[in-house]
Amino acid sequence: MKSWFMQAQASAATLELREVPVPGPGAGELLVRMRAASLNRGEFILGHGLQKTGTSKAIGAEGAGEVVRGDGGFGAGDRVMGRCAGAFSEYALMDVREAIRMPDSLTYAQGASIPLAFLVVHDMLVQQGRLRAGEWLLVTGVSSGVGVASLQAAKALGARVIGTSGSPQKLERLRSEGLDVGLVAPNGGFHDAVMEATGGKGVNLVVNAVGGTVFAECVRAMAFEGRLATVGYVDDTLEATIDLQALHTRRLTLFGVSNKLRTKEQRASGVPAFMRDLMPAIADGRIRPVIDSSYPFEKLPDARERMDANRHVGKIVLEIA
Questions:
Q1: Same domain, yes or no, for 122 and 100?
Q2: Where are the alpha helices (DSSP H) in 79-209?
Q3: Could you tell me if 192 and 235 lie in one domain?
Q4: What is the distance between the alpha carbons of residues 29 and 16, in angstroms, rounded to a whole number?
Q5: What is the pLDDT of residue 47?
Q6: What CATH number is attached to the domain comprising 73?
C-alpha cells in the first residue's frame, strides 16, 4: 500500500510517499480502508514535539473509511471515523475504542474532519471548560480547524462566541456559522473590544489556539472565575507572563489540552462522553464540519502548503481514492 511519511530534520520536515506492507490488526484494533484524512497543523510543526529530529514516521492523525477486518462489534464494510496513527495511508489501524460509527448523513471527507478536532474541542469546552448556555467564549485564531470546531460546538451548546483573526474575510465567512463578534486582531490587542461586547464582564472561557503572544491579553479578557484553554502555539512563542493578581483575585483556571503524554486508555476514555454530548448534533446536522478544501492523495504537499500559508478556513482534507 501507499503511505505518506515525514522525515524530521533540525530545521525542516520533508514528506515522502512510500510503498509499505498493509498493517495487520492486533487485538482491539480495526483494519480500515482509508477514504479520507484531514490535516492538523501541529503534526507538521517540529516545535510541537510530536516527532523527534532525525526520525521518519507515517503521518496523519484522523480519518474515515471502511472496516476491512473488524473487532468489538464492528464488521467488514462498516463506515467509521476516528483518531488513528498513519491516517495518510491507503490502510490504517484504528483502536476499536476510538472508532466512531459514521452517520449516513456524513461523507468520508466530513467524517475525517471530525474526530481529532471535535474530541479536543469537547475536552476544552465541556470536560474541562464547563461551558454553559449563555456564557461567552473567546477563540483566538478562530478560522483554524480547532477554532471553527470550537465555534460550532459552542453554538450547539447555546454559548455566545467572539473570534479573532488577522483576516476580515475569514471572520465574515464564519458569521454564517454563528460567530457573534469577529475581531481583526492578528497580534492581540482585543481586550477593549471583548469588554465592550460582554458588557464589561469579560469572557467565561478562552480557547487560545495562537500561543504565547496573545496569552497575557487572553487573561486580561477573562471574567470572574473564567477558564483558559491553551491548545496550540502556531506563533512559536512558548513563554508568556502570568498576571498573578488577576489569577488570584478573579479565581481564574488555566489548563492545557494535548494528547501527547496521554495513554491510549486516557485518550479513549473521552470518546463515550463526546458521543453523548456532541454526536447527536453532528448526526442531525446542527454541527456540520467546515471543509476548506480537498486534495487528492498524491497532493499532500500541496495541501500542507495551503495550511502553512494560513489561507484556509476550517479543515483541509486528503481524499484517498
A1: no
A2: 108-112, 115-122, 145-156, 168-174, 191-197
A3: yes
A4: 26
A5: 56
A6: 3.90.180.10
